[in-house]
Structures are given as C-alpha cells and as structure tokens.
Amino acid sequence: MFSSMKAVQLVRARIAYSVSAFAELALWRIPRPAAGSRHGFKYRLVYVVDGVCVIRYDNETGKGDHRHVEDKESPYAFTTPDQLISDFQRDIARWNRENRNP
Could you give phi then psi for residue 79, rounded to 5 degrees? Predict the structure, then answer.
C-alpha cells in the first residue's frame, strides 16, 4: 500500500529578514527514509546573507541529517519537523547576533 505513496510537500516558504537576507524552507514527507536518515522526511533549510548561504540544514541522500554553519558541517539529531524549524530559527538568530545582521 505505501510503496506507491509519493513525496508530499509539507512546507515551502521564503522568508525575508532584510533586503540582503532571506531563509528558504522546504520539507517533504517521504514514503521511506532517505539513505543515511532514520525518519520519513526530506528537508532543505537555508539562510542566505548577501548572496552567500551561511546556514543550511539538510539530509542529503547518503549523508544523513546534518547542518552547515558557514564552512563547518556537523551532524544534526533530527527529532520532529517542528524541532527542526525551531533549531534552524535559533541558529539564524544566533548568527545574526554574532554578525550584527538584522
């Protein structure tokens, strides 16, 4: 029954933080976990400032759940979509404080 289920987009949003900064969020429910992940979600959340991606959360096939903050990559412990978005927003706020961005 579930083998024919397709990905269902749950979130697709672009949020402007300023003229030079925005976030894009994309989240799908998928029928089977992506290689390297243990849950049924596929996601990509990015924060871009002055044309440069400074924060990215994703679960690229084969790499599993991880995040990038500037040039540093680290594992991410995915629990729920709500927590994912909350963690992403927390990292944006911290980055903005540390870099004096709006």
Answer: -120, -55
Q: Are 88 and 54 in contact (CB under 8 A)?
A: no
47: burial class by Cβ within 10 Å (0-12, 13-18, 19+)? buried
3-state secondary structure of 93: helix
pTM, two decimals, is: 0.89
User: CB–CB of 15/21 below 8 Å?
Assistant: no
**pLDDT (tens place) for every residue of the chain, 102 residues total:** 345 578 899 999 999 999 999 999 999 999 999 888 999 999 999 999 999 999 999 998 788 999 999 999 999 999 999 999 999 999 999 999 999 865
Residues in the chain: 102
Q: How many whole angstroms separate alpha carbon 44 and alpha carbon 58? A: 4
Place of tokens 């949020």: 15
